[in-house]
Amino acid sequence: xxxxxxxxxxxxKVANSLPYLLSLATTANIGSALTVTGNPQNIxxxxxxxxxxxxxxxxRNQFLPVCAATIINIGMxxxxxxxxxxxxxxxIAENFGILFFGNRTPEMLAQEHAYYARQAxxxxxxxxxxxxxxxxxxxxVVIVITFLICFGIGLxxxxxxxxxxxxxxxxxxxxxxxxxxxxxxxxxxxxxxPLPPKKTYDMDGNEIExxxxxxxxxxxxxxxEVDYGLLxxxxxQFLLIGSxxxxxxxxxxxxxxxxxxxxxxxxxxxxxxxxxxxTILSNVASNVPVCQMLAATFPYATPYDWLxxxxxxxxxxxxxxxxxxxxxxxxxxAAKVGDRTFTSERHAPFGIPxxxxxxxxxxxxxxxxx
Length: 370
Known about the structure:
Blueprint: H1 2-11, H2 18-32, H3 40-48, H4 55-85, H5 92-101, H6 106-123, H7 135-152, H8 157-178, E1 200-201, E2 207-208, H9 218-224, H10 228-246, H11 249-258, H12 270-285, H13 287-297, H14 303-315, H15 325-336, H16 344-369
Antiparallel strand pairs: 1-2
């Protein structure tokens, strides 16, 4: 969604897109902690727990911590970026009035009027497109709801995920091939008039007939959307962590760092120190490799232990830019469309305090109500 967020910021003439990109990355991280299928480390953790944690059980345990972390993150976003999000607002009280009661400041009204004026000018001479959900959007919603119901009734997570992904890809492919308009390759001059196709000639001066346009297959379309740089980054991480596990250094590090808490890492006050260790490691090696490393370190961990690891490793991803895949994906996608405001230096002033508060508030709730 990074490209969509940047596009909306440009369309609405937002001077600073950082609060919106930061909200996207941090809330995506926090929300992904709720379910087994929310992020890769949760799926890995469930496989490490030998399926002792069901989909509904996982979501039920993580519901309160995730809700608390979301509320804290939203509140801190208001505190840090209230001036950008609510132009002309006098403070937090007025921000809540704008958010929940539809109030508007003079600056916001001026921006809205300017936006609607631009929209009205852009629509002159064009037929208004029909609004509402298409049959394809409704079909995708039905597939996703069925997907979630299958999780809820306890069907195998891997099988359901693969089936749902395959069905969505087939539906998207059918729509693209049979219903979406073909790309217009006609070039136009500065007045909007179509230009005739350019003629090409061989060495003897004979005109070369243009070849028929080749049909782009779904495989080609799908492969062009893969971010190979990011894929290679994660492959390298897994190879490095897998080799590192074999040295025995992770086990020794945890025994030394946990001290007397090594035998009861998620009990009593020890859980808060354990969470801090997970947070530090998640921002050194990223959260998915850390969960893989913990599997070799604590092979007999209980389901509750893994719930704490899941929550802390996921929320820890908001501490720095390198903490999670979501941060890097948002930064890479925004950079692709020319927006480079989402950087490590700008992320840290918000990410560090927000993550620490969310992390320990959620850890307390999970330890108390699991």
